[in-house]
Amino acid sequence: MDGGPQYNPRTVEEVFRDFKGRRAGMIKALTTDVEEFYQQCDPVVPGSLNKFTANYMSQQKENLCLYGFPNELWEVNLPAEEVPPELPEPALGINFARDGMQEKDWLSLVAVHSDAWLLAVAFYFGARFGFDKADRKRLFNMINDLPTIFEVVTGAEKKQVKEKSSVSNHSSNKSKANSKVRVSESAKYSKGGQPKDEDDEGLDEVEEEEEHGDTLCGACGENYASDEFWICCDICEKWFHGKCVKITPARAEHIKHYKCPSCSNKRARP
């Protein structure tokens, strides 16, 4: 094999570096170097060869494996001859399934087995050099922060990033909406006469004053007061007295995205 000199990583950081190098090499084989990889896994022997030679070559290709190396190289080769092998072995015979499947399905299958092999090698080193529970957990978390080879090859990684972005935006909008509701309900409870424990009420007012004490109304410039209803603009994120922008607590509950008068006028201009 052409993976360079063998070495044994002994710390969590070294094992993780080894994992990343092997992973990078295998990703290259399945993405940027996929044509070369596909050809090297050809299970068909050229027809011009005589029967004896063809049978011999077929036997030589019987159990091809995809190897990744710490220096980010990859190689298709026969499995190691020594028993037991120095390291766990990748999936055997990946070339057999090549022509019986769609190319993308075959590559996905090889990717899954490659992920399993990488984990096996990493935790082989962990067991060999006595990683304790904390070290094993730290190693797994470091590995788990990376997308799997399967996710990279199938495009699932990009899909997950897009979904996370969508969820993040939804959460942000939901948070803003909840902020409006909390403020409006605070005003309701302070003005609506619903019974409230005096000590709790006083504590709530102190906490609100501390949290929003430096907030100024974007319309009148006055400071925040806990006994008044406020609303936040979703565009400029400035806070306003409800009375200054003519928004009541009841009306605010039905507003999904509030735009202050200034931002509304900017959007209306040609």
Q: Which range does the strand content fall in?
A: 5-15%
Query: What structural class do the secondary elements suggest?
Result: mainly alpha
| Total number of helices | 11
Low-pLDDT sequence parts: 46-51, 181-196
The number of strands is 4
Coarse shape: elongated
> Can you write the helix and strand succession as a string?
HHHEEHHHHHEEHHH
Residues in helix, %? 40-55%
Cα end-to-end separation = 67 Å
Q: How are strands sequenced across the largest beta sheet? A: 1-2
Q: Could you give a short account of the major beta sheet?
A: 2 strands, antiparallel
Rg, alpha carbons? 32 Å
Please tell me the overall pLDDT.
Answer: 78
Give a concise summary.
It contains 11 helices and 4 strands, in the order αααββαααααββααα.
Question: How are the elements arranged and paired?
Answer:
Elements: H1 12-30, H2 34-40, H3 51-60, E1 65-68, E2 74-77, H4 103-128, H5 133-144, H6 149-154, H7 156-191, H8 198-212, E3 230-232, E4 239-241, H9 242-245, H10 249-252, H11 261-268
Antiparallel strand pairs: 1-2, 3-4
Helix pairs in contact: 1-4, 1-5
